[in-house]
Amino acid sequence: MLEGITPGIGVTYHPENGWGGSIGLGNTTSNVSIAFSKEGNTTLQGSYSIGHGVQLAGDYTTNGAANIGFNYNPTGEGPRRDWNFSLMYDMAGTGLSASVGYTNPNSTIGLTSTVNRDGLSTSAELTGVSIATNGPDGFQMDEINFAEQNINAAQDQTQNDQNKAKLLASGDFTPADIANMSDDDIQNALDGLPQDEGVISNLLSEIGDYISPNLSGILAVGGGIATGIGLLTQFGSLGGGNRIPTNLGSLVESLRNFRRREDESTSTSDGGNRVSKLLDGVNLNWDLPNLGLSPDLLNELGKILNQEGYTSPTAQSNAGSGIVNFLKRIMFIPAVGYPVSSGNTKDRVVDTQEKPKPGEKLPPPKEPKSEDYQEMKTKVLDRFFGKDGSTIPAKVYLEELLKDSNLSPADKNYLRGYTQSLYKDIKSYATLKKDYENGKIPDNYKPKSTFAPLVPNVQNVTMIEAAGEIPPGGRDVMIGTVTGFREYNIDLDRKDLEDRVDSMNEHNKLHPNYHSSDIQIDKAKGVGVDSNVRYNILKEGKDANGNTLWTVYSFHDADNIHQFTNRETAELFVNSALKWREYQIKNGIQPVVPLRINDLSMPGVGNSPYVSPLDTSLDPKGHHHYASAIDIAFPGSDGDRAINVSESSNYDREKVKDLIKIMAESVPPGYELVVHIEDKAVKEYFSGTEIYVDMEKPHADHLHFQLRKKN
């Protein structure tokens, strides 16, 4: 099954995960591969042919992600040759998914459409690696994983070699016959041979046979690959953040004995011994070019491997100095530490970013280079500097452009940030305009770090507009399928709302210890005039399945008058509540608890009886004197509410960070999230990111969120 194997090798670099790599063994239908990095996660992938064009496929990552399912390809040549139909189950995320795809066997260019609970997405692929995707979130160019391409190219080469070997072994074809066959001719000839069903144990045994004498040398090619696989075989797993031992010789020696069968203990191959002796005492240095391995040593490794009959991922078997040249191609540039590649894309080994972990802090985004982005940027600049003659502001014009744009969500957000940065430097407008007329493009935009979504599979929902005028006494409204809101006409219901302010006054008067003050406010001033702040969040909200998404921790029903907000904030809150529930379920957190809310704003942004320490006037406007404030209780480690940052034993700082990230995931375009919390560690954690966190008092017993329009 693994005769004529061409190993696939890839070297990667990630700013946070460090150096890593991939190695793969097998063909297009039965294979195993592993990808890892110095500080990141490890992913093990495998496929096994069970005959008649069906393969059992699966993968597992040390962060808990796992998929299992089946591929069906009528040709029996694997998912990257002609048509393929797939049914997979994501055990830690999107659940069941189905896909259909076609790949041209000659060009290796393919198109695959996938349906899961998030909707339909279609990806363009090259050698099985996605290069662009059009899905529910729009069109986007994907990060090309060249290391994975190397693995796939090696599997394709192995499949080709094994197909020819099968024809030769049948006795019906001579080497000359096979050499003159096209790919279609070879496939037709294979169809006429008896099918090789095989069993899983045979596959594993043959992989073990191959690893025993060969893998020690192959792993040495990548340096970092050898140490990663060595750790895996010695300790069973390679989790994120583990420090990797650096004595390469001892690891290679242990690899030589991996799965060696007793009846093969007299193997005549001494390649593994020669490699082990060559690397004995060699220590890798992750801070030096080539991991501290000299070019002479790498060349010597190549010679040994070539003499033993091993090939590079695309070299022909025993092709002279093919392995030596391949080793030279994965030499690292001393100045920057990045791998270089030859013009052959199949042999290319370059840096590639792993899929970030949920909630992981990401580096600041880089400016897109696509023609569509650059064309739209030019239109925005022309508008900002008055070149196109229109008086509509550039930031307003941009939103109109984006409505019909094919830019990805990330590219749209970058252009929004760039456009907003122009207004921050408005004092230098004349200078900027003159520079622009002379061909100089403003480049003052410094984007901040963001976070990978914690719950990327939960789509944001919006408010369902009710038809007709708002009746007296208000009406219930829904956001998506979530209930728990009532919409009022502030002017029409002003008297009833003022009576509710009086009820809150009375409650505060009777129970002053429950509040920071027993101040009574003019009920007329308790109801403002901002008609946008007309949505009253009720004491409890539920999703379509009846699950409770939030409750209140207010002291009295009368306090509900202090829970009004605008549409943007209401949608932010509901989407965060939905994601908070999914976050707990996904991470196995028990019990699954709803968010607990307290004060928002007064109706119409009226005055509040609760005095802000920054506003001690006799007739105070009080706190939350704006449209978008939300107070949410600290989530506790035991599922209960944590009362205080420093005094509650169940205060869970990591959950607090995650709740802030989840709120930030639903911030609408044109806004930024502001958070008040008296926790210095949390403030410092979010420093330099798009989420603004400060320690404004008094916020030691709850989280304060608000939306703030970007300038």
TrEMBL record:
Region annotated Disordered, chain positions: 342-373
Ranges of biased composition (kind: Basic and acidic residues): 345-373
Name of the protein in its database record: TIGR04388 family protein
